């Protein structure tokens, strides 16, 4: 037997051999690791290089001082240290997406939402086979969607909404079996919706809304058994909705408004879609009845079928729809004009969450059922206008205590307006027009302290206009025309300075003179008192109604001459003085007003008719029935004025005789003129701008007078300084007028004409919240250099900036500590909003400010705010672009950093939306005490996001501590007039609610998308309501006012077009 040999190898030797064998593997791994790291590093630097603007300096961390895995927005794998996620959302970055993105081969998530990237989506993204989440929403990407994205087979989310993409959806996308969310809404995509999308077996959300897709809805979408959101609204789709879609039991939200779809809804719809929450099918061509089976859609929250062709009786039992809050069936042919058409109100009364009910412009008949008194007390909007309803307005409507909107117009209601309507104190809009209502107007209507629109026209109302109507504080639109009202017009009504839209009292039996108080209507756009029995002269104070665009006084017994104060109404477009007893000559200043229609017929005017302005257009004027008029343009065929021809011949003869004499003198005059001009240019002689086309300003100033007024433009008089202007305090000799002189430091060819043109456009713009421009000057200084200046009304309390962020030096110079309380800030915010509303909506041509910020809001002695630098943005922008073509400036980019709307940085045109954004930032700054450029706002955090994250509650970190003291504060409580709240005061809770509402408005003004920003007119109304309640809570500290968070009306009125929300809201 042979024994085996056993070799014993020492352990150290074994280890050596093992590591020697492993060494090539480790070397290969390290080489690949270093190579991969370097690839990612270089790719990230290439991505950074394509970003041209980084306003928050986020990418400054992208340098080699630390490993790229520590850079902002970067996530790496723990083992291989390769980039797996790139998240740069909401940073306002500007630039293009580098094709080197394709080198980040380990990338699973790319999120660039809410930036300003433009250009095409690089096709290299299609090579990222590990990619799961791709989000490019809210940018400006253009071009077509790369077809090779279909190679990213692991994609779970693909979001391209709110861009400028064109072309078709690639049919190859049907292969993305893991895709759960595909959203391309609000682009310019076109063509057919690919049938292959029906292969997306995992899809849960499919949003293709607001594009240009045409053709039919693919029947293959009925195969998507996991689908819970389908948004196809605002396209050009036609045909029938595939029946299979109505059998997708998982479907929760189905929105297809604003297409050309037709057909009927399936009778078992309520059973086949048991999870349905939102059904928006409005503005299509659907016909037939509403399925009774919708009674079983117990999860339904919103039903909107506005503007379709549905017919028949509403047979839905709404009693089981306990979550329903939005029901709009308006503009259909539903109802039969029968007394039981509204019988479904009985079941609606069990929908205790109902807030919006719109059944307007249908064919409902009968009377208002008793069950209207039992509708949800949460109801905000009730619209039944444009039907065939009759009988009296049910007194039970007084139970709907939270109504903000009541529309019953264009029906056959009769009887009197119930007194209980006055109990609906939350109402903001009431329209009872075009009915058969009779009796007097209840004075209780004036209890609706928040009312901004009241329409009672075309009824049979009698009696006087209630004196209490003069108590409205926020009323903007009042129409009582075509009734049988009598008596005088109350002085309080004629002095409602809140009226901005229209005051229409025409076609009644009103008598007496127009009150001198009419001058208080200085924000009004239209005044119509025609076809009454008014008498006397037109009050001269009407000249203060400088925003009037339409003045209709025809069909009365007015007399006298046309007052010269009408010359102040520079924005007037329509003037009707017909069928009165006016006399005298037609004033020539009417030629200078921008009239488009002038009716002077059937009066007693005499003398020569002017021939310029509106008088040069025979179709724009009417002068019939004035027997003693002469002259005018030939088309009017008026008699020639006496002595006109003979005087013309005499003048002609005289001119012929003087020609030889003048010819001899002309050469001498020319020579002398050249000598004088040469010397004037070298000397200090200047010609004032007021002798130029801008002669409509109030003062005539020269360089010398402004030099004296500002003590030689001394530094002691300097009160402001900017990149293109300096502002000096001065005293002009006439009347020792205190003024602010803005010297514009721009010297360029053509600047004079541009400057004059801009000033000419500004001279007719007047509003109590705009800084008054006294005059302008464009001339040469003592050394012959061009000089341009604007002379403003001086504001003794300086800028809002100096109050929000006072410096110790400023406080010392004013011998006071500058503190703004809650009420004062709210007043200033309202003043600024009113100024913007005027510029946007009530000027002859809308004006965009472009640079709204605290520095441009000035405060007078009464702390009333006045917006400055309006209307000059275009001049400064053009001037800076020519004078400093290679230098950036805040004006050149339409605003100041921090306040500028994001779309401006991408080259977007100036628009009122941009001003609203700036105003939102301003509002947040006023009530948080934080500048938008504060150092705390970095790493994606902005003032907008900072405020938004705090809602729906607020705390001491969000709000300026001067406005919301804590209970432990040792600071003395300030005087109530300053608006600083005592923590022990019972109004503290109300103040908190007030601040929440204000912050919400600021946030919604400053949203990224311009189309989603609140209109400045709505801002004014809501801030005024907040102030009203806040002041009431101070006045009656023992009362407990309702919450200021107006759930349905906070910064977006429920009367707005809700389809923009319901159609495209994403899960």
From TrEMBL:
Keywords: ATP-binding, Cell membrane, Glycoprotein, Kinase, Leucine-rich repeat, Membrane, Nucleotide-binding, Phosphoprotein, Receptor, Repeat, Serine/threonine-protein kinase, Signal, Transferase, Transmembrane, Transmembrane helix
Domain of life (superkingdom): Eukaryota
Domain Protein kinase: 713-1026
Lineage, opening ranks: Eukaryota, Viridiplantae, Streptophyta, Embryophyta, Tracheophyta
Catalytic activity: L-threonyl-[protein] + ATP = O-phospho-L-threonyl-[protein] + ADP + H(+); L-seryl-[protein] + ATP = O-phospho-L-seryl-[protein] + ADP + H(+)
Transmembrane segments: 12-31, 657-678
Name by which UniProt lists this protein: non-specific serine/threonine protein kinase
Molecular functions (GO terms): ATP binding; protein serine/threonine kinase activity
A Gene Ontology BP annotation from the UniProt entry: response to other organism
CDD domains: STKc_IRAK
Topological type in the membrane: Single-pass membrane protein; Single-pass type I membrane protein
Organism: Nicotiana sylvestris (Wood tobacco)
Annotated EC: 2.7.11.1
Gene designation: LOC104246122
